[in-house]
Amino acid sequence: MHAIATICFFLSLGLISTVSIEKIPFSRYGTNGGTNCAVCTVVLGLAEQLSVIHNETVIKGLERLCKFLPEPYQGACKEFADFIAADIIRSFSKDDTADTACHKMSFCFTEPKTEMCHIFPLKPKYKDQLEFIQAHKSHRVGIKICDLPGIKKICDWIDNIFSKHDPAVDLDGDFHSVYQTLRGTSWRGKDCNDNQKSVHPGAKPIDNDKSFDSNCNGIYGVNPSSGRAYEEELCGNSQPRGVAVLGDSISAHFHLPREWFNSTEMSLSVFEPLVFMAENELDWPEFSTVTAFMNNTQKFHNVLHGPVDSVYLRMFDRNHCNHRDYQNIAVNGARSSSMADSIQFSFKRNISHDQPVVVFYALVGNDVCNGHHDTFNYMTTVDEMKNKSLNTLNFLAKTLPKGSHVFVTGLADGAILYKALSDRIHPIGSLRNDVTYSDFYDYFNCLEISPCLGWMNTNATIRELTTKRAVELSEALKDVVTTHQSSFSNFKVYYVENPINQVLVEWTKQGGEDWQLLEPVDGFHSNQLGQAMTAKTLWSNLEKMYPDVIGPENPNNAKIKALFGNQGGYL
Ligand code: CA
User: Looking at the 3D structure of the chain, how many domains does it have?
Assistant: First the structure.
């Protein structure tokens, strides 16, 4: 693999993906260098910090950074460091920061009549550096990382992963896979026969699973003492059901390890799951609010911290016949339009041959968040929201088996983000305590690559306007649900407030602080603790207000466990 390609892969993973949540292609420059500028600056910034910690040159710091990567990336990264070394020596003087160095190297530029974007504080002589840049660059076109020799293939590969949301490995086309990543078992219950379409999690059992397991819950065969099928005896009256979420990066559980961006915490082990993470779009559905099926983070303890809880785990605890019946149809950057236009079709349920399912429609904020500067046209309008959400409900009406339930969730109030984080130090500023989330927000907005410019913004008016529209869109959803409450014969539909707001209130009542529930790297998503607490809140709401949704407790759970053990597990 080409050296630069590899480093690009690493950088892209670490940074571009954080910021290009809504399909900003890797090839896009963006304003002032956009993602290319950000990648250069963050990597050189970290290399420079490592060089300070270990009293060595920036090149050595970059090589040290490379050494943290798993093979074969490590060797390739070193080659890249060699390739770019001369450029770094030329560009990184004692009066430079990573910001000015990346300007000199053409990854960043400054649009005419605008201020220079920078994430680190500038050094006193930075103006001299800028004059140097002006004198040596006759054009303002930045370098596109993906255009460098050999890199295109890798960039295309990453774009490919991040743009397709159906399982990559699925021989029988039932949308359940035996492969873990690439929208496989991390996202939907594992297929127990990938050669037969009628066999998959959530299927109504074929001939009571007397001879084989058709619904992949691990329960099959005939009880020799009664002569009846186990599936019939243990699950027949249990009212089994699945759980699914149609959502965005919050439901997919987007998470980048803090340790990747903190020069004082970097180590070999935190980069181990790099490829796994890439193939899951940097999401962690197996630990998410709705579909977590792993009950602790032990396997990934280097990069993921906190308790696990989920609606699926609770549904399984309640009725072991529900084993493996989960679908996480959440995509980073999803909003009501992309959900209705494409993402929803990735959800698979057969209206007559499958069991009912409890579906959460949860688009928490992208409808007001992302888009371009200068105009609020990027926000979804009330009418659009109504049309698109109704479109998704109509789609569900064609596919949900009788007895299903759909919860339409309102938007969150992202104003909390700024209040919780603005004065705190971002991981990339850990060494010198010199980068706050406010700086981080301004930098991303300067490059126009923020995942949510509306709320991740130092301008209070913009934040307020964003919240105002979010409230209007929640009202629109409520309106759709009220109007169409009796339109769907196979499922009941309910509007619910976004549980995240409730979670934050409860957490602060307990003496907690908001930032403790937020992702430290992107400063936008809920972290592992937040995901688990949301599951707990959601479940307690279901128990109290919608007991028929969760179904009865299966008295045969202990018997199932004794007879079928872990029911085939999950992976
Ligand atoms: Ca079965």
Answer: 3
